[in-house]
Amino acid sequence: MANPAIPMPAFLRRADPAVLIAFACILVLLLIGSIYSPGFLTAKYLLQQLKVASFLGIIATGTMIIILLGHIDLSVPWAMTMGAMMGCAAAALGPVGSALAVPFGILCGMAIGLVNGLGVAYLRIPSMIVTLASNAVTQGLMVVYTGGYAPQDAATPAMRFLATGETIPGLPNAALIWAVIGTLAILGLRRSVFGRAVFGIGNSERAAYMSGVGTRRIVMLAFVVSGGLSAFAGTLLAGYASKASQSMGDTYLLPAIAAVVLGGTSILGGRGSYVGTIAGVILVTLLQSILSVMQLPEAGRQIIHGLVIIVMLLLYGRTPAAR
Amino acid sequence: MREWRYLLAEQRGTLVAMAIFALMFTIYVANHPAGLTSNVVQTAANKGVLLAFVAMAQTLVVITAGIDLSVGMIMVLTNCLASALVVGTPLQAGLGVIAVLAAGTLCGALNGTIVIYGRLQPIVTTIATGAIYFGLALLIRPFPGGSVHEVLADAMTGKIGGVFPASIAALAAVVALVWVPFSRSLAGRAAFASGSAEQAAYMSGLPIRRGRFLAYALAGLCAGAGGLFLTFFTYTGEAAQVSGSAYTLFSIAAVVLGGVSLYGGRGSAIGAVFGALAFRTIGDMLFVFDFDALWQPLFQGLILMVAVSLGAFGLLRVRNRLDWFR
Question: Where does this protein reside within or beyond the cell (chain B) (predicted)?
Fold first, then answer.
């Protein structure tokens, strides 16, 4: 890698090859898209894609923190749906509820995250199992709440504004929110004690514990953050579609994991950069949009998602060989 | 005398699962309006057997300290395949059954290949392959439909001699032909050993790769048998994502109830089968007590949550805090 004969800019030498490949893939996809359809490279279409990417980006932020810890959060789908449904339900309670709709939705997501965190950090249950179980419990709660039908409550104007409005002309608010959350994530992961602890735990929780990190508190906090972000994305998505629906979260779990993995974050934890996740999110969104432009059926999309994750993992995510 | 104690300790999980099932089924039947008739038993058996097949599949992978989140999707895929292949003359239907079971085994073998030879994490690998299998199922059946050889289907879901449910007999046959030989074979012991202490198993020269691969492949076979039976019960094939994820989820619940350790190396598919039957009975308990069916998903989720949380009692035995972090 360090070949002095080829002068490379410092940022390229330091960058993770996975991130560079992800950005290269984005360029290739843009090229394919522009060949396939002339409307692809217009600012309007790309901004629309950015808006769609923002929802995934917010979710992937939480997913990434969990994966950095070496855990996994499978409760994303119903944390999202619960956030959306509870936000809309609060809105039906009158002006006060309407004003508190988004915070209330996020709070519900954080509650799910808290359950996950307690189970993983304090009860030491494998994260996959706890989050799968809390996903099922949340689904059960929501089925009881809605009676099995799509809820009638509509999204508040504030939710719609956050998801579809434009504070800065031309730039969707959703993208702005993702930018804020992304900046916080970059700073939080790079500069804060929390971020250092997350990387430390991902590499070796034992070592982090011995160095005096309150590993259990950090893990719990990370799950709360992930749950809150999923629910926040859910409320935004409800604003985008102007109401919540039963299966709105199902199509986000796999893309979120795919985006994080494509961005070069190690599935084993402890290694990864948020810039990579941004690239992964844009890559997954573009891939989805090209597949839908090509009118590929849902079946093809599922297969391609699965294949992409496995191929990328085979390239970067392999565990060391036995001894 | 000593021997007995060890045997008992080894089978404790299975025995507890049997006890839970016996207790739950007694309560269920006692409160069922029809009481203990062969029809009630048959219906309960048919519902339970589907989950039991998937739970067996999950057990095979879990004992190697892995997890298979694609079992439900393999079941859905084989369901769709069976609705297209198990038709026509008895010979064609017979070949169709073999093809469906082979497809299930192939799916499992693919998981095993990627996890063992590709050295990837089982969780993410099987999430991804699960998506692929579901996509294939959607390609076969974009809309619910298809049919199945009805004589065969009725024979497999009916009663033997008017009393004993045939599906239970089929389940027992699969246990006897797949689980018993596997768990007693060298490869099977290697699968157990790699689940409890991979390093030690490797050092002892056990064929851990072969053992783990066989475990994944046989898991596919069991999930395929589940898909086949799903077709026998419903007469159609449907690529339903919801039911695939539900079966995956319930298989984990059944495995936990069946006393199989999620950390690998401990447990028996027979325990998981009883875990599955118990889980189904608990889920159906709501109906005999006249609860609204809406509460069922919540109730099943809570059972799973409680079951996995019970594993935390092991923490009380931990003497050194560093043992928290494996």
Answer: Cell membrane
Q: Which residues contact A322 (CB under 8 A, 6 or more apart)?
A: B198, B202
Q: State whether residue A215 sits within 8 Å of chain B by CB.
A: yes
Q: Please report whether residue A262 resides in a domain.
A: yes
Q: What is the pLDDT of residue B63?
A: 94
Task: Note down the domain range covering B275.
Answer: 2-325
Is A96 among the domain residues? Answer: yes
The complex's ipTM?
Answer: 0.84
The single-letter code of the amino acid at B34 is A
Chain B: closest CA distance from residue A6 (Å): 33
Consecutive sets of 10 residues in chain B, 326 residues long: mean pLDDT of each?
Answer: 78 88 90 84 90 96 93 96 92 94 97 93 91 94 89 88 88 94 94 91 91 96 96 92 90 90 89 94 83 84 86 74 72
Which class for A251: exposed (0-12), middle (13-18), buried (19 or more C-beta within 10 A)? middle
Partner-chain contact A133 B301, CB within 8 Å: yes
Query: How does residue A11 score in pLDDT terms, banded at 50, 70 and 90?
Result: low
Q: Are B219 and B68 in contact, with CB atoms under 8 Å apart?
A: yes
Going A29 to A34 to A35 to A39, the CA torsion angle's sign is: positive
The answer to whether the CB atoms of A309 and B120 lie below 8 A apart is: no
For B70, nearest residue in chain A (alpha carbons): A306
Range of the domain at A207: 51-287
Give chain A's domain count: 1
CATH number at residue B260: 1.10.3470
Give how far B322 is from chain A: nearest CA, Å.
Answer: 6
Classify residue A56: in a domain, yes or no. Answer: yes
- What is the pTM assigned to this prediction? 0.88
Rounded to a whole number, what is the distance in Å from the CA of B305 to chain A's nearest CA? 5
Do residues A261 and A252 touch, judged by C-beta distance below 8 A? no
What is the number of domains present in chain B?
1
By the CB < 8 Å criterion, does B243 face chain A? no
Cβ of A309 within 8 Å of Cβ of B124? The answer is: yes
Q: How far apart are CA B146 and CA A105, in angstroms?
A: 42
pLDDT of residue A322: 61
Residue A5 lies in a domain: no
